[in-house]
Fold these 2 entries.
Entry 1:
Amino acid sequence: MGALDEGHFCAELENGVGLGCPELGFEEEPETIAIEDAVKVLLHGLGEDVNREGLVKTPLRVAKALREGTRGYKQRVKDIVQGALFPEAGLDNAVGQAGGSGGLVVVRELDLFSYCESCLLPFQVKCHVGYVPSGQRVLGLSKLSRVADVFAKRLQEPKRLADEVCMALHHGIKPAGVAVLLQCLHIHFPNLESVFLKPNHKGWLKSLVCSGSGVFENENAESWTDFLSLLKCRGTNVDRTSTRHSNEQSWCPSQSYSCAKTSSKIEPVNQAMVTGVTSILRSLGEDPLRKELLGTPARFVKWLMNFQNTNLERKLNGFAFSRVNAVETDKEASGKEKQIQSELELPFWSQCEHHLLPFHGVVHIGYMGAEGLDPIGKSLLQSVVHFYGFKLQVQERITRQIAETVTSFLGGDVIVVVEADHTCMISRGIEKVGSSTATIAVLGRYATDSVARAMFLQNLPRPTACEE
């Protein structure tokens, strides 16, 4: 199950972690204030105005998101398990197993979210838990999810998360054995330089880890076969051999970046920003000197600087365009019938300015072009998308900005649809798994011609299975 300190979990079950100062309101608590101050330092480092309307409440929003996302430090496993154990008779001295005490109990597809300890980005977890009750004692099913969530709501990495959930349940229920299997997805942001070099960049990295105790301690035990078979009943096919490889290498892309040479130019890290992130770690109840966290502040700052506010001119990928180009195109197309043309599924990555959490997705652009004229190059439109994506953003704004910009060289008839997944929708309080957001901007003919608008929207690609 992993080299964990058993005494640590016994203490966790009995005592938990201190609950802070309940007499203070959330906004008045020292931890909240410290995080807000640190976020202001980060925003200054990005060249942003903390008094800008969209950013005024960002420090408090970030503080709420981070403290909510790490609330597991102040929760006690004992409070969850105690009072939720119920007597249930089962076979004690007979051959085989029966329901209740002695039979395998599995809870599948628990959606959890955690913050990666290496880069402070949230990652998504599909958790499957099973245990074999003993001593005529079973646990309320909802408590399996709640115990798993306690450890997910801490700075984590997949293998340790699986081990901590497994051992906590083993000590809390005292079963014949516990099995935990996690399917983890870590958002994989390219940096501003590499995004042009790797157009097929994948947005997620996967990791599969497991942990077992008692009858599940041996990874080749028949109990694991039973557990995995019950997962397959719901269409969850797991290749157990891949779990061995997941543990041998760092799964966090930020550490892969630090090992790979992506640029000959090495930018110095803003030390004030690093100090700010260190303060955030301390305010969340973590020890910034813990070996797994030593490089985390610098990695987070390096990633965040991808969204630095710079006073760039509107020159995209070596091209500069103005309304004159559109006028010349209109002259050339005079007398020719215009047809709907499009560039679909242009990927983008961005950072929500309200919570400093990433969002990403695809952009679809439609325009009216005359038959026989060369279509606008996809690389140029992709450059426009990246230009506005790599900033602190909101989806509504980036949709409008792309539409207004591409009219300068596509003419006035433009439609833009942005589809995105927001980590703030799944990693914070509402935790709406599978939710996505679509925004639309229409200019010129697309704003008045419902038929043309409908034709474009009907041709948008349908989603395929997630990250196959």
Entry 2:
Amino acid sequence: MNLQPIRGRVRTGLPALLLGAALLLTTACSGGGGSNSGGSGGSDAKGTAAGAKSGTEASKAVVNVKPDDGAKEVATSGILKISSTGGKLTTVTVADTKGNAVEGKLAGDGASWEPARNLAAATEYKVHAVAKDEAGRESAKDTTFTTLTPQNTFVGHYTPEDGSTVGVGMPVSINFTRGITNTEAVEKAITVTAEPAVKVEGHWFGNDRLDFRPEKYWAAGTKVTVKLALDGVEGRPGVYGKQTRTVTFTVGRSQVTTVDASAHTMQVVRDGQVLKDIPITAGAPATTTYNGQMVISEKYKVTRMNGATVGFGGEYDISDVPHAMRLSNSGTFVHGNYWAPSSTFGSENVSHGCVGLEDERGAGDDSTPAAWFYNESLIGDVVVVKNSKDKQIAPDNGLNGWNMDWAEWTK
């Protein structure tokens, strides 16, 4: 009877021993399996841990933005600078609240970015910049700032008008409302481009006028675009531009008229072909007509001409001069003349410096030489006067920069 319990315990303990051995064997096999794989299991675990650590490690690239976030009354030039230490800039966007982007240039080494032009005044800008370190980790910075509100401003009054069709001699002429001392900054803020492309250069007349033209007359059919990005440009200390405008105009057919003051004739050439020869009267011996290349800047079907306004006292005051086209600021015109006998035209010079063509009073007869020339002319057409006993007209007396050679113009 004592043997039965002994057998029972042996029978019960054996499976437990076998189970323990099996568990031990299983554990050994599992561990041995990792070892038999060349330690990859251990390496994978370490790699995962390292990866997790790498994923949370901060980028070594730091983005720096000047001016500081939230800055007010920021200067429109020379202040905005974005840079990175410990990495390279990969993305830089600067835009105003309307989404107008600021053009800029990223340095070749990716370490810095600066705007290509000045910023607009009284404008809030948003900056978004991203940099990347050598490990490919990125960091970003977003800031805002607001530029100054100027107390004194200027604009540029330009010619020709937007959308106009002009003659081949028409320059782009901009007259500023304040004298400019920082001419380089102002000129940089104005671009003039042509299609087909041609080199266009600016020239300053004094400190308040800037003209642009190509070396030779525009080609007929040229499309010209003028961009005025003067907003925020400091034209002189404490005086800022407040103008952003795009102007386009088209150059029409080519018409160049040559007046021979000695022969009392005027020849009109269009697109290389003689259109008409017209008898004229030019300046009298005591009041000769300027020589040189002149551009029609204004047209009046009827206008008043008073000698007192151009230094001739009370010598004349004609209230209804017909078909008048201005050639200079000092009062040179091509215009109709109804008060001189018909025999004067083509034989005598009797004017006070203008070029006169036969006409009828009231400008109502389109068959007269003056009416014909007026109707066939565009603002921007060229009138060349030669063989007059006077000097060449000054380049800034009207839109007459063509009287300056290219080397002088581009100085």
